[in-house]
């Protein structure tokens, strides 16, 4: 094989990397084409020492030669527990160069959300939403890419990156088409599991072409590298032995050849036998022996540097190694000469963290592992104190505290609890969980033990409801949680049970706790929660007299506190579901407001009650034709969650209900857009959850209204919109929507069966509101040919229930159903009545449908044209096409 040398400027580790370097050059050229170019991602994978770091260095050289801005970061084996460590390395240098007001203006709404994670803003006292923080960090890159185009981001040793960084990197990889930035990632093939592995798989799937797996050097390349380093006189046998000893590993080859030079070994066959011993001294045990040769002080300095892992300043290492400043400086110079430590490249932007770093991660790992176990543990304890004394905060010290042996130290428990609070405030609940789990092993004293469990439940609530249930049950079984905190723990336990699809257990939990409390605000709060969970249950009621008990309790409420306001909302929603008079429903909800607004403590981001209660309130207005007030609440929710950066389930539900508001108004295009965004967000949270059903069901309903039947069926198939249904109520009723979908695609028998299932489910719960659970009208239409008598009875029931409920929309829709079953002048009269009611309704799609149907029945061109205009403005393409077809056919007086 012909020897091919890399360019003079390139590292020796770039031998036989021509294809990879060419791919980098193409990617950089593409990035530099213009500012509108899409982002790109390259991933290089390989075992330790195969030249990944050298490829990133070459990427930097190529990019900077073309005028790019380059930022880089590296994961560390001992730093994986430090949240946002790698993304801070990467982005912090660009932001700390700005004045605080400049950074705030530049990041806009994301400043307070992503700033704490980046270390440029002090964390607040509220638990941050991890997905919101991730989205904020993606937005930061998008904005900085516009400022610093063309921008290249380099991430080395991604397999050792912290989980929070990998979450961000996965999110960034999926949205690179929105920004002009090149991301190059280097990682080992294995060494990752759990969520980090899933995030790296997402990154790999988004890469530009297949992931490049690096291979070892061939014998010919090793020979070329050997002669380039030692001289052309190196003989073939010696070169073959270099390859055999190093297995073609570029890092090992470079280190071995450096040792050959240091020892002035003649590169001839007669001296080739000495290569193996030299190689052993370059890594592992040989490296440790070489370190010991430098003296005890240098060894202690290297150990201290390995313990710190990052921020390796001579002064900080001196404190940890208990060395005088002059001794520390001498040791640092010895370790630099021995190629164990080095000064970081200023171009990486990492030099602000310290003035030293290990030459290679392999060396850092070997030095760290060489520290005797007991001494390593003790040094971590000292490092925690030093880091805290330096003012870096409890979270920075926590990674060292995690390594300290349990010793019944209540002060350490307090430090870990404080670190957990800091982690939660920056959006790192998994890091908080590790701190609190470690605090439990200390263990805490009996008076603080239940509080640690309670805090741990808060850290696991968003990601592991089953764990949360266990933590809270244990905490509640201990003495110590009293008063409002105990009530809050019971509420959170019931929420976790709900999220874990254990709704009946959630109901029993709050019922039992409420029974043991004396009358007062705490008991009333739990009673309200009890009714709330029962009201969300989609199966049979837990107790047959629930609605009457709720009505009796709410009748005593004036809305003087939030517990009473909650009961009024719950009573209003229950009345809505049962189809009671809409005016009374709205009056109950009005009494729960303060001057027409949500009361303090009942805001969308307040945690005392949760989102479920406020959605009940908003929906009670939305389905009683008070759409102005409903849309105000839906949009308030959306703005509130976007402002605080809650990008998970809360934001998904907000988008879903904004979409429902659009759907009720008849703004079908806007509804579809909101619901598709809701479904995108819901998929990130997890399939099968109630919020996922809400988004899917409403999207299918909207697509059917638009006349996009094939799209509706595709959404249903892709997102599992079919039985079994969730245990919580979903609006609109999924069985009714599924039945209508089946009828629309021509599966009439299946559609009738589904609607009959909806009928039984509604009857079991007493849900007789024909707007919320619209199975009867669709079933009447489907049965009109084969069983007209039953269809007529259903239409009569729909009208009776609609008149009881009393909204223009409900009555107008009931009249449309009745008209669909008639012919001739009777149908015309019923359609005319429907038009009258629906014209007064805020629901423009239903009004448009009534206009078109009346125009066809009455053969009225003017009504058809009016209906066509309404259908077009609503985005109801199917209805508009029906109106056009009727006009084309030449309607006129019979």
From TrEMBL:
Question: Gene3D superfamilies of this UniProt entry?
Answer: Tetratricopeptide repeat domain
A Pfam family cross-referenced in the UniProt record is AAA_16
Which residue intervals define the domain Orc1-like AAA ATPase in the entry? 16-184
Q: Which domain of life is it from?
A: Bacteria
> Where does the chain cross the membrane?
none
| InterPro entries, sorted | AAA_16, P-loop_NTPase, TPR-like_helical_dom_sf, TPR_rpt
Q: Which GO terms describe its molecular function?
A: ATP binding
Going by the UniProt record, its keywords in alphabetical order are:
ATP-binding, Nucleotide-binding
Kindly give the PANTHER family that the UniProt entry links to this protein: TESTICULAR SOLUBLE ADENYLYL CYCLASE, TRANSCRIPTIONAL ACTIVATOR DOMAIN
UniProt-recorded name of the protein: ATP-binding protein
């Amino acid at each position: 094989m012909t020897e091919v040398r890399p360019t003079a400027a390139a590292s020796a580790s770039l031998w036989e990397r021509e294809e990879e370097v060419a791919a980098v050059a193409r990617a950089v050229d593409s990035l530099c084409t213009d500012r509108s170019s899409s982002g790109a991602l390259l991933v290089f994978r390989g075992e330790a020492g195969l030249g990944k770091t050298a490829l990133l260095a070459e990427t930097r050289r190529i990019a900077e030669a073309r005028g790019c801005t380059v930022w880089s970061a590296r994961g560390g084996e001992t730093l994986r527990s430090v949240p946002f460590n790698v993304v801070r390395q990467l982005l912090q240098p660009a932001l700390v160069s700005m004045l605080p007001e400049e950074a705030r203006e530049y990041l806009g709404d994301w400043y307070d959300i992503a700033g704490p994670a980046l270390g440029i803003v002090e964390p607040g006292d509220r638990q941050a939403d991890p997905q919101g923080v991730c989205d904020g960090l993606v937005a930061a890159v998008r904005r900085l890419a516009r400022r610093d185009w063309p921008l290249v981001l380099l991430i080395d040793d991604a397999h050792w990156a912290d989980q929070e960084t990998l979450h961000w990197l996965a999110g960034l990889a999926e949205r690179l088409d929105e920004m002009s930035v090149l991301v190059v990632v280097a990682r080992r093939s294995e060494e990752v599991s759990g969520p980090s592995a899933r995030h790296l798989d997402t990154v790999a799937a988004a890469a530009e072409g297949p992931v490049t797996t690096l291979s070892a050097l061939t014998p010919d390349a090793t020979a070329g590298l050997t002669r380039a380093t030692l001289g052309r006189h190196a003989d073939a046998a010696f070169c073959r032995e270099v390859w055999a000893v190093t297995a073609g590993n570029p890092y090992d080859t470079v280190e071995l050849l450096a040792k050959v030079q240091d020892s002035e070994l003649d590169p001839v066959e007669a001296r080739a036998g000495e290569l193996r011993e030299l190689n052993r001294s370059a890594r592992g045990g040989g490296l440790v022996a070489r370190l010991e040769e430098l003296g005890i002080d240098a060894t202690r300095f290297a150990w201290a540097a390995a313990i710190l892992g990052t921020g390796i300043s001579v002064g900080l290492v001196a404190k940890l190694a208990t060395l005088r400043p002059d001794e520390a400086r001498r040791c640092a110079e010895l370790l630099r000469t021995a190629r164990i430590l080095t000064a970081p490249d200023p171009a990486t932007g990492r030099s602000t963290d310290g003035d030293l770093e290990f030459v290679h991660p392999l060396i850092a790992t070997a030095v760290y592992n060489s520290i005797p176990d007991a001494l390593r543990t003790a040094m971590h304890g000292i490092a925690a104190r030093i880091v805290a004394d330096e003012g870096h905060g409890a979270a920075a010290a926590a990674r060292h505290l995690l390594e300290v042996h349990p010793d019944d130290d209540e002060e350490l428990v307090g430090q870990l609890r404080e670190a957990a609070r800091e982690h939660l405030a920056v959006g790192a609940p998994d890091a908080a969980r590790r701190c609190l789990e470690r605090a439990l092993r200390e263990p805490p004293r009996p008076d603080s033990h239940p509080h640690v469990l309670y805090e741990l439940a808060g850290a696991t609530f968003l990601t592991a409801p089953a764990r949360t249930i266990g933590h809270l049950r244990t905490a509640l079984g201990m003495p110590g949680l009293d008063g409002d905190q105990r009530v809050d723990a019971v509420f959170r336990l019931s929420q976790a049970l709900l999220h874990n699809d254990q709704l009946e257990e959630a109901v029993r939990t709050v019922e039992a706790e409420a029974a043991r409390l004396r009358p007062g605000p705490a008991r009333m709060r739990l009673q309200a929660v009890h009714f709330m969970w029962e009201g969300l249950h989609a199966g049979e009621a837990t107790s047959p007299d629930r609605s009457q008990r709720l009505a009796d309790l709410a009748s005593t409420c004036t809305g003087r506190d939030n517990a009473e306001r909650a009961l009024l909302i719950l009573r209003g929603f229950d009345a809505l579901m049962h189809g009671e008079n809409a005016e009374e429903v709205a009056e109950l909800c009005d009494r729960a407001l303060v001057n027409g607004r949500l009361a303090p403590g009942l805001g969308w981001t307040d945690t005392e009650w949760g989102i479920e209660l406020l959605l009940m309130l908003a929906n009670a207005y939305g389905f009683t034709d008070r759409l102005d007030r409903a849309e105000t609440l839906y949009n308030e929710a959306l703005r509130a969650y976007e402002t605080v950066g809650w990008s998970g389930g809360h934001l998904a539900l907000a988008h879903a209900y904004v979409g429902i508001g659009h759907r009720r108004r008849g703004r079908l295009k806007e509804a579809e857009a909101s619901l598709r965004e809701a479904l995108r967000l819901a998929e990130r949270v997890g399939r099968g959850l109630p919020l996922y059903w809400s988004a899917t069901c409403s999207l299918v309903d909207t697509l059917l209204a638009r006349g996009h039947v094939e799209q509706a069926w595709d959404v249903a198939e892709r997102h599992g919109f079919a039985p079994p249904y969730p245990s919580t109520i979903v609006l609109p009723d999924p069985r009714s929507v599924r039945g209508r979908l089946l009828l629309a695609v021509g599966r009439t028998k299946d559609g009738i069966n589904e609607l009959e299932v909806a009928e039984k489910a509604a009857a079991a719960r007493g849900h007789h509101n024909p707007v919320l659970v619209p199975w009867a009208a669709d079933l009447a239409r489907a049965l009109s040919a084969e069983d007209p008598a039953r269809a007529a009875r259903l239409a009569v029931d729909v009208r009776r229930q609609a008149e009881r409920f009393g909204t223009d929309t409900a009555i107008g829709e009931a009249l449309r159903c009745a008209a669909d079953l008639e012919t001739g002048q009777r149908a015309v009269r019923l359609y005319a009545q429907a038009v009258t009611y629906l014209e007064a309704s805020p629901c423009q799609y239903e009004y448009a449908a009534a206009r078109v149907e009346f125009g066809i029945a009455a053969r009225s061109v003017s009504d058809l044209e009016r209906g066509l205009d309404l259908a077009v403005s609503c985005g109801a393409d199917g209805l508009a096409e029906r109106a056009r077809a009727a006009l084309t056919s030449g309607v006129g007086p019979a």
